[in-house]
Amino acid sequence: MRMLRISAALLLIGCYVASAASAQDQIALSVYVHEGSLNGTVLSGVQVSGQDARGSSIDATSDENGMVVLKGLPGTWKMAFKKDGYEPIELTYDATQTEEVAAYLEKTVSSSPISLTLYVYEGSMNGTALSGVKVTGKDAAGTGFSTKTDSSGIAILTGTPGSWEMTLTKDGYSPVIGLDFDATVSEDVGAYLQKAA
To answer: What is the chain's Cα-based Rg?
Structure first.
């Protein structure tokens, strides 16, 4: 197994599946595209384009298994990976033989503020709405927020997308401290508090 670090957003891992091809023979790269990391879920609909060692175009789109098969002459290949909602990546790869490789794309994080509509319940997600819950924390930029749920158990939080941290407290209930949430888009989310023993 060999590993080639291309960038923070991409790793290719090659597993030898055939002996080196001669310069005149075509080779095939089976590329498996994942989300977020090489252990992430597979990504369909990723457009992969580029050139083989001769400069011939290689174009394909990943299938439902996150796989594309690219064929061309061995040597230095240039490839670009694109999918809406993900950061595009470009790489140069030394394709010398038929093999399987893997790559991953990371979701695009907008710098525009997003809003989370937080619904807080008592006991479980099916419980009654809980008003007066204090919600404090920080957005992905480290900007703090502090609010309370209204009479419908709702608190609206606005901030920079990314990893958020929240704490929920209310007298008579066990607090939820340091709740990490991956807030990438405006959406509705839920939480609940248990009555203190």
So the answer is: 24
Q: Which fold has domain 2-105?
A: Immunoglobulin-like (2.60.40)
Checking phi first, is residue 75 left (phi over 0); if not, alpha (psi -120 to 50) or beta?
left
8 A C-beta contact, residue 85 and residue 104? no
Give CA–CA dist 154/148, Å, rounded: 8
- Greater confidence (1 vs 27) lies with 27
Q: Do 161 and 114 meet the contact criterion of CB atoms below 8 Å apart?
A: yes
* CB-count burial class (<10 Å; 0-12, 13-18, 19+) for 177: exposed
The residues spanned by each domain of the chain are: 2-105, 114-193
- pLDDT tens profile 10-50: 344 443 333 343 445 899 999 999 998 999 999 999 999 99
pLDDT band at residue 197 under the 50/70/90 scheme: confident
Q: Report CA 134 to chain centroid distance, whole Å.
A: 30
CA atoms of 134 and 112, how far apart (whole Å)? 25
- State which amino acid sits at residue 136: T
CATH 2.60.40.1120 fits 114-193, yes or no: yes
- Write out pLDDT tens, residues 154-184: 999 999 888 899 999 999 999 999 888 888 8
- The pTM (predicted TM-score) of the whole model is 0.50
State the Cα–Cα distance between residues 14 and 24, nearest whole angstrom: 21
